[in-house]
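User: For a benchmark we're assembling, each entry needs the component sequences followed by a predicted structure for the full assembly. Here are entry 17's components. Please fill in the structure.
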Amino acid sequence: MNEFDLDLLRAERVGLDEALFCAGKTDGQVARIVETVAMAGRPMLLTRLDAARHASLEEATRSRLDYDPISRTAFLGARRPLRERARVAVVCAGTSDLGVSREAARTLEYYGEKVSEFNDVGVAGLHRLLGRIQEIRAHDIVIAVAGMDAALVSVLGGLVKAPVIAVPTSVGYGAARGGETALAASLASCAAGVTVVNIDNGFGAACAAMRILNRG
Amino acid sequence: MNEFDLDLLRAERVGLDEALFCAGKTDGQVARIVETVAMAGRPMLLTRLDAARHASLEEATRSRLDYDPISRTAFLGARRPLRERARVAVVCAGTSDLGVSREAARTLEYYGEKVSEFNDVGVAGLHRLLGRIQEIRAHDIVIAVAGMDAALVSVLGGLVKAPVIAVPTSVGYGAARGGETALAASLASCAAGVTVVNIDNGFGAACAAMRILNRG
Amino acid sequence: MNEFDLDLLRAERVGLDEALFCAGKTDGQVARIVETVAMAGRPMLLTRLDAARHASLEEATRSRLDYDPISRTAFLGARRPLRERARVAVVCAGTSDLGVSREAARTLEYYGEKVSEFNDVGVAGLHRLLGRIQEIRAHDIVIAVAGMDAALVSVLGGLVKAPVIAVPTSVGYGAARGGETALAASLASCAAGVTVVNIDNGFGAACAAMRILNRG
Amino acid sequence: MNEFDLDLLRAERVGLDEALFCAGKTDGQVARIVETVAMAGRPMLLTRLDAARHASLEEATRSRLDYDPISRTAFLGARRPLRERARVAVVCAGTSDLGVSREAARTLEYYGEKVSEFNDVGVAGLHRLLGRIQEIRAHDIVIAVAGMDAALVSVLGGLVKAPVIAVPTSVGYGAARGGETALAASLASCAAGVTVVNIDNGFGAACAAMRILNRG
Amino acid sequence: MNEFDLDLLRAERVGLDEALFCAGKTDGQVARIVETVAMAGRPMLLTRLDAARHASLEEATRSRLDYDPISRTAFLGARRPLRERARVAVVCAGTSDLGVSREAARTLEYYGEKVSEFNDVGVAGLHRLLGRIQEIRAHDIVIAVAGMDAALVSVLGGLVKAPVIAVPTSVGYGAARGGETALAASLASCAAGVTVVNIDNGFGAACAAMRILNRG
Amino acid sequence: MNEFDLDLLRAERVGLDEALFCAGKTDGQVARIVETVAMAGRPMLLTRLDAARHASLEEATRSRLDYDPISRTAFLGARRPLRERARVAVVCAGTSDLGVSREAARTLEYYGEKVSEFNDVGVAGLHRLLGRIQEIRAHDIVIAVAGMDAALVSVLGGLVKAPVIAVPTSVGYGAARGGETALAASLASCAAGVTVVNIDNGFGAACAAMRILNRG
Amino acid sequence: MNEFDLDLLRAERVGLDEALFCAGKTDGQVARIVETVAMAGRPMLLTRLDAARHASLEEATRSRLDYDPISRTAFLGARRPLRERARVAVVCAGTSDLGVSREAARTLEYYGEKVSEFNDVGVAGLHRLLGRIQEIRAHDIVIAVAGMDAALVSVLGGLVKAPVIAVPTSVGYGAARGGETALAASLASCAAGVTVVNIDNGFGAACAAMRILNRG
Amino acid sequence: MNEFDLDLLRAERVGLDEALFCAGKTDGQVARIVETVAMAGRPMLLTRLDAARHASLEEATRSRLDYDPISRTAFLGARRPLRERARVAVVCAGTSDLGVSREAARTLEYYGEKVSEFNDVGVAGLHRLLGRIQEIRAHDIVIAVAGMDAALVSVLGGLVKAPVIAVPTSVGYGAARGGETALAASLASCAAGVTVVNIDNGFGAACAAMRILNRG
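Assistant: Structure for entry 17:
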């Protein structure tokens, strides 16, 4: 019986490396997987690695990792050089959503994409978004990160031609219902052709962007 | 045992007449209540009176009613003259929301308020709303009627000083969940100081506006 | 007061024409919008136009429409010629999901895309899907249409490099919860980078595909 | 990339200052925003600043704040003088709801409103409310704070003419569902013209009151 | 195989006759059960027998039944004489709840209880309830029938000593959620010692009252 | 493009024939599938074929089917002879659940299993169940069909050694929530080792039984 | 402004003392209320006072309290003598439900009722319940405490004549949904005339019993 | 009054020993039950005994237990010898699901079953599952353990003849909803004859397997 069976051919099959989602795994499992992949000389992205767990890793393991506490992501292996042009805009409604938008940005950087980040442009102060919309339009793909009512998603969807990938976040309380409202509002968006990923899934939005960018 | 007990002193107590919510009542109950109030020489607003039921009322009863099929409302008794200035703007996201926004407008008219209606200004085509925002700002109160993601509510809440009363509508399908998403999104709005009434409750929003207008 | 305010510049702004979602609108509203757009000499896609309503339209209006009863869509205006190569694969789990997958296909055809349809390839008979996977892989984008447990979404997401857009359907009963389970399962998919649109929203998936195809 | 982008013109646009919702932000973000606003010589209201976090702020930051632990609010900058007359009544059902009602009262005080608070007047002991109803009626606006079944909201709505803004609270257990029942009951209130804000959103109710008071 | 197996000893065991809940049974099943019980010379209460089905029963069957269309109940067999004193008060919030309150009253009458009915005493017009509270207090048991926010339940629970059995009704729309809000609000009532039965279950409330009255 | 792709090797792969779930398919689709399978000389079970649709099938198609209106099932092709001994007991709580329990029984008969049916043995009259428990114990598998609170499931699970497969039904109203309560209660059963299928899924329970019986 | 306003006349009005629900109140609030009531020379029941908080109370306060850690209740003031005969049976499904059933028993003891407790008689081992049913039948009222599927409620309801008050508990996991399943199952019980209180509300069930016992 | 009443005849009645579910019981209750059973010289399985509680047990008690921290299970009493042939395959989608799959395996081992475990074979990397499907087919029963979208359940159900018992797990976040999505997806599986147990209920799946294996 093996505890895990890494999917090392995933990149070939779907164009994306297998990543390690750390939440829900024990410290021992995380460490053993990192060691196994490192031994195989392969790169890997770790997500949902919170600061306390990162700090508790053995020094040998920790030294292999390029860690970012806001996004709770780590890179194992040498970083890919970044492209010159940012093809993806990550647009983030509020300061509280930064962990999620940074997860998207870091995942894209793992694949060598330079990312433009637009923060704190929620629609309660619409001028902030409108003032930057031309810049945003210069990108091939827009990732929209927003919690609560996720109104940013529809507004963006109505202002740009690019694919818009919505990431609802768990920011908010009460009727925000841990991100369920932002999720449902994004799905029911009045702007056509917006797609949606799971709550707080900045990683997934970035992978979806990579699937588009890998095309052609 | 009486089937009903009209609250004829309500206007004195809360500044609003008792209205007749027809859905859920039998044809007989609706007819008997209308007759009782008419006999008492009092005005009354009827809501949720759908066209089929209106058509099935006896001619004597029907002739007492000023009926509007879109809003499914009827006025019993002489109409109050309308004020010269529209103090309330009813802003409606889409054509499918018109029944609800008209219910709000008709309720206000019942109380003698002239109403400005702004239709089909959902945020998927933001220029439509922005092009009319100065007009909207000229009103004392804004009622925002929107279904699906209700993004209109937050956008409006960030653009006007007036009280904003959101009416989520049951328009939409799937993740719109019969208006629950618009309701939750309105409650979780990123714009401060927006208040919310029940799904499709144009009547309630108008009553809330009257409570404000009746002040001082 | 206008009942509707068509967003005729939408194509310029987001690369997609405004479409007419017929459900929730009255017969009169649908007819008036069709006439207005026809008068303006513009094409339009109508969705959720069920057969009974289509049949009840006036002959003059009906004669303007190219109607398909399975997808409940209609084209107003001359059809665009189709591309030679199908860039989008619409993969459909079961016969009961056909209305939704056809809505996606028809929307793409409205924009001139030739579509490859793969029907009845749900994972309960996995060989059917595996037998056609090479064909599916030849497309730039995959739209996966599935109800109930939507297992097709994850399986496809793990087998192709292309962007996968999931359309959960309301097919099923009991724990299928009108499509909510397929929706949640698609969002929680174990395959990375899958994106999701609203339940039964074949139109939205096609629009999302067009946003990708319009790129570059 | 900036972590935040303060909306300093909000007061001009909507008549309300941007406030800082501390929950969901890191200690560093809270401190940096407070410093930025203080440097700009502007006042700000902080909400959901719990006592532990307040205590952990650096002395320099903490000394700028007028903190209240029950409401978890803090004022940055000089306090506005209070009006002589209390225009708003904050009516609170039970002792457990005090944190929320105090948040409403403190927000109003931030804007210079004197507030009358009526505590522990839940309808299980109706005489307590009836004994104070004349006092309550002397106010321009009533904020009703209640958890569990929120019956206070309907009772108040039927007894006063003023605008009634309901704040459902997360007090209770089991079928109280973290405030969802109080929220739904307030929205479905049998008293006409009551409006509702999010669960535990004393701040939002006060902002809604300010929108009304800022009128005319 | 038998289609049904009547529990003719139920009265002995639990003090209540087996009743026939007609909804969900076919016309044939209802008719065959009525005939079987009639043949056995036993009385039976039928509930949820709507008028259309009642009308479609064969004359022979229908002639055995004492039918009431508002409560949708029928008595099979001779009526028991009513007690002189009404021991149970059935208090009903609004006209739309009458079907449910009548079901409770009819069930009690089936068992020979005289019932006092108090209708249209919802708390939005509190004086109506307060004006009759002394009368209500003269009963041994109070059944409170209310939909929407069910505020009547808490108010009554705080005003009487008797057992209060709440029957939430499915009256209302939107956030009333088909009676779920009235149900949850009744369960979370701030008045101690109130008990609750299923939505629209006037029959069950009456049975619960009979269990109490059968005591001692 | 084919509308359907029958999985004719399913029996070989999983030991069960592909069945035709008629709900959600159009009349045309049902008829074409039946014809295709009949042409191939194969048997097939049809489920959820309601009486109206059955009656509307063309005579040629209808004549091929052995139809049962209570279970809404039909057999295409010659019936398999039944085993001598009933290996499965289908235990049904109430008369309203019969459609579902009959679906289970008919599915088993399709595969040649003789079935013992125990009807109307809900736990509100526990003696009915206890009086037949020895008979039930004589079977290899027990299918328990119950709606509302599904208490029958736990009681049976604690009284027999055999595998117990629970089929929650949508019988009931209000808090029964269309079968969700029976489903959740069955899953949370205090009796160990009970398994559960979807609401109203008599067919699925029978298939599960066949998987067990096909073993060894 | 007062933080609380005790309802000292509640006993007179509804026959029950106001009790102190400690959860959701601060330590200071609990202590101040206890002191106020003690000063007034009145008895009071405290509920949801967990052991840690009890231990942290000042010695002076703690010495006034008769505390029971399992039920998390405390009596303030002299205990009432217990009646000779137990009129209430508290029947508890499993060991994990004991905290709730003890809360019911302690509340009854506060009012001077002797209580018979029947523990660990869940229906998965039906013989345990049946072996004690004659004893249970000797009581005037039965309180049934059960979590998970709450099958005990229906079984008891079908076996006794007395009023049955169900207390669903939050025991269980997954589909038990924190007591929601037990709650819904109790409400949808197939046994007629069972009433229900909130999840884990042993106190409320006891109060309901007292309302019955106080009668006549 | 006894705190617990062990069901020592359960094995005789249902073929399974009573097990001790430790979560929700106090340390004292767990210890006392273990001692009681040990004194009676009987074996017992303990589930949901987390490592911290295990460590805090008194040495005397702890020494009686054969504890496994991953599955959080312990055996009391001598282990039964394992059969030579593994009759059950436990198939686990991901590393995070191991705690649940191990609970199933350990429960089977408690009853003397040898178990084959197949780990990390989720469908996002379908080749891993397909590569081992022949091995899996060699077993009499398949237990499928999967969280998130639980697509593994349908894929397996379509590939094997054996009974498939699905155990949805609480692994995942957002739309995974603590296992509710995996649960609903398993119930709505497109593969016929799959049965389901509660979320994370590896124990229950093993008991269901034992009921099957105990047959004949």
